[in-house]
Amino acid sequence: MSDSLLIEIEQAGQRLISVREMVARRVIGQEKVVDLALAAILSGGHGLLVGAPGLAKTLLVETLGTVLGLNANRVQFTPDLMPSDILGAEVLETAPDGTRAFRFIEGPIFCQLLMADEINRAGPRTQSALLQAMQEHHVSVAGQRRDLPAPFHVLATQNPIEQEGTYPLPEAQLDRFLFQIDVDYPDRDDERAILLATTGADDSTLQPVLSAHELIAMQAMLRRMPVGEAVVEAILDLVRAARPVAGNAATDAIAWGPGPRAAQALMLGVRARALLDNRLAPDLADVAALAVPVLTHRMALNYAARAEGVQLNDLIAQLVERHLGLAAAA
Q1: Is residue 169 located within the same domain as residue 141?
Q2: Is the same domain home to 201 and 281?
Q3: pLDDT at 84
Q4: Are 231 and 196 within one domain?
Q5: What is the pLDDT of residues 233-272, one digit of tens each?
Q6: CA distance to 25, 228, 263, 267, 318, per residue, from 232 (Å)
Q7: What Cα–Cα distance (Å) separates residue 313 from each residue in 242, 286, 327?
Q8: Do 319 and 241 touch, CB atoms closer than 8 A?
Q9: What per-residue confidence (pLDDT) applies to 98?
Q10: CATH number of the domain to which 112 belongs
């Protein structure tokens, strides 16, 4: 590792400590959720926040937009939401001299951080329109390509409880999310702190810690961060073991498994996790910690395994223990 890269990593680690401290002023508890959301953004990817209503998912996205210095928009997805409602549309305008011309009006997707609230309530056409933007960072309207601002990230939310009137996300779109971030209920101490902080007169003010240009530079630096051969082999072993192919012990339980994009997500994610912990390089513990967020939405159990009561997270934990000799993060 060069001295210049070493200095960049150390400086970035210190800046990220300030980012986490600023986020913690508004989002109490949920440290794991905050770190996974930050890791997804640092890796240049998108995150799917899955949790019951009222667990500060919207607050988290708004806070990250402010602290990271990003232009953020929020879209409430509904069954009648059309692609043009998020992409924008061309409208015919009449000038004072009577001439007419089409003008493109940008939709809310033209931002740097998009919160897609309850994404699974939108219909397939709208989900497909979002798919291109998430993968290609541009959209096509009226046959013309329009680039999205840089950086561009989507943090989507999904309610796992109420499924009536929803459209399950297709596997191709799920694969575009770097992590699935499960948002659980806070423990008693955190909930007490939330209660006191949010029902009083004081309201913590947030200040930007990074700018969009600094975030882009940090994302580029992350890709130059060294990864040891043992970590690379562990990523390959884990991802390949989660596929229903001959020779895998878990084949009898898996209907479909993760592709190479899962290995790419782990490769970027372990670097981001090490950077957030102010370390110079990732280790096997980072792979174990990110196994569930990376794999859980990229694989599925077959009917026989579900009938036997097998849980996907438990299966992933078994794969981590078998191939890494470590326990997966709960």
Answers
A1: yes
A2: no
A3: 87
A4: no
A5: 999 999 999 988 867 777 788 888 899 999 999 999 999 9
A6: 36, 6, 9, 7, 19
A7: 12, 17, 12
A8: yes
A9: 75
A10: 3.40.50.300
